[in-house]
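Most newcomers find our protein records easier to grasp once they have seen one. There is nothing in a record beyond a sequence line and a structure line. Getting from the letters to the tokens is the skill we practise here. An example says more than a description, so a record of this kind follows:
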Amino acid sequence: MLNEYKSLAAQHLTGTVHISKPASSNSVTFDSPAMEVMTDLRKIPAAVITPETTMEIANTYMMQRGIRTLLVLHGDDSLAGIITATDILGEKPMRFIQERGVKHNEILVMDIMTPFEKLEAISLAEVMHARVGNIVSSLRDSGRLHALVIDDQIINLPRICGIFSWTQIEKQLGTVIVPTNVAKSFAEIESALIAS
């Protein structure tokens, strides 16, 4: 089957050669459509993991893919929760070790993830009419670094169809945005809820 394809001609590099840069790297502004900064899971496969996977494997998987968030899925592909790099690298694992008397390498994703019941998502219908500034304000107000987007217009089949990431938005804007709230992750919000 591969015999059907002709190989392409290559040329030797000479002189000075530069690397291309994305034309749109700084074309996003606070007034740009929110869809321009959403990771669209209808076009890009979601980074997923199972609840029974060890936290260390989840961390390695994030580092290998260069991401900071994994959606946690049950065996039937339904959403179980979300785990972030902050969950893994923050205080949550140490608290779990102290409370349960387990070793670090025995901690599972389900032990430190933010479970489904504590998650929120922004409706895709709202996102379609929103601007990047609306997303930044929403993340700031919630004290989170990530926001899920749900397509709830599908009858009986609501689906998470996108993710907003504070870090990704900063990259696309070409600037650092200073968060105003203290809590910055699902883990820290959960900690605040437990303490209250």
In short: The domain at 29-195 is CATH 3.10.580.10 (CBS-domain). Strands lie at 39-40, 48-49, 69-73, 79-84, 114-115, 121-123, 146-151, 159-165.
